Amino acid sequence: MLRTKRQAMKFVQAVSPYAVSTLRRENRSYRAHGHDGDNVDAVIASYNIHKAVGLDRRFDPSRIISVIREIDADVIAIQEANQRFGARACLLDLGNLERECGLVPVPLEEEGQKHGWHGNLILFRNGEVTDAHRLDLPGVEPRGAMMIDLTLKSGPLRIIAAHLGLLRRCREQQVETLVRLAEPADGRPTLLMGDLNEWRLGSRSALKGLEPTFGPLHATIPSFPSRFPLLPLDRVLAKPHNLISSVELHDTPLARIASDHLPIKAGIRLAEADRVRQDLDAVA
Fold first, then answer.
1. Residue 39: what pLDDT?
2. String of DSSP letters for 163-209
């Protein structure tokens, strides 16, 4: 009992700054140094849709599609997009998504589910997918990720969409796996995005293994729970770090009730990241 009380006190102490920030409506966006967030090549988003069940306990996939339309992203990673049992069919009407939002799902060539993996689904528009894989992640829970190579109008990009586990040790193992698999052969920029289920910062964070490769880890935007966003569970991280120009919370009346998570979206500068890569290649 004493140990439980101590753990509860540590949690309260740790999240208090987030609570104060939420009350003051602060810490709702991040801007990279020297950039105002307006000069971006594409908008990338991540959204845990809670199996399309809102805070009013209604199963309403069409409401989720309305929020996705509000976000207006070029690429969006969805978590909890599939049924838990049986055929694990997608909970969203993919035809309606294309009609209303211009977004289509990344196709997977492997046997089994045609779209998505362990609840992860990637939607995109105005691009070409040249490679797509399911990734199995270690841990006591069944967890997975999707990794795709996508060419947008502004350039090539690798995207890893993941929903990490609830246990800290499992998240650390999953991070190690993702870092090992993330390196593209052609050196294209990489985004890691999704519900990473980690709110801690610094040495106690299960995401610390990402720091040498992905960032900016300090761009933490509380996104959960949606009515009173307190914990920064949802993240968009990049390699190189300067790929991300801005990160912000998508906080609207509809988004606050549609799921228990609020979506986050990031503006990226693909053309600039590609120029940096070419300069490094020339020096090498």
1. 78
2. E--SSHHHHHHHHHHHHHH---TT---EEEEEE------GGG-TTGG
DSSP lists the bridge partners of residue 48 as 79
Nearest to 122 by CA among 110, 139, 111, 134: 134
What pLDDT score does 256 carry?
A: 97
Q: Which of 31-35, 45-49, 198-202 has the lowest mean pLDDT?
A: 31-35
**Cross-strand partners of 70:** none
32: left (phi over 0), alpha (psi -120 to 50) or beta: beta
**Residue 144 tokens, joined:** 């997975």
Residue of 209, 204, 158 lying closest to 184 (CA atoms): 158
- CB distance 48 to 195 below 8 Å: yes
91 Cβ neighbours under 8 A, 6+ residues apart: 49, 51, 52, 61, 81, 82, 83
Q: Which residue has the tokens 């209303």?
A: 100
CB 246 within 8 A of CB 73: no
**Cβ pair 82, 116 in contact under 8 A:** yes
Number of residues in the chain: 284
Place of tokens 């997918």: 129
Which one-letter DSSP state was computed for residue 107?
A: P
Q: What is the pLDDT of residues 156-199, one digit of tens each?
A: 999 999 999 999 999 999 999 999 988 898 999 999 999 999 98
Which amino acid, residue 145?
Answer: A
What DSSP string describes 43-65? EEEEEE-GGGB-TTS-B-HHHHH
pLDDT band at residue 117 using 50, 70 and 90 as cut-offs: confident
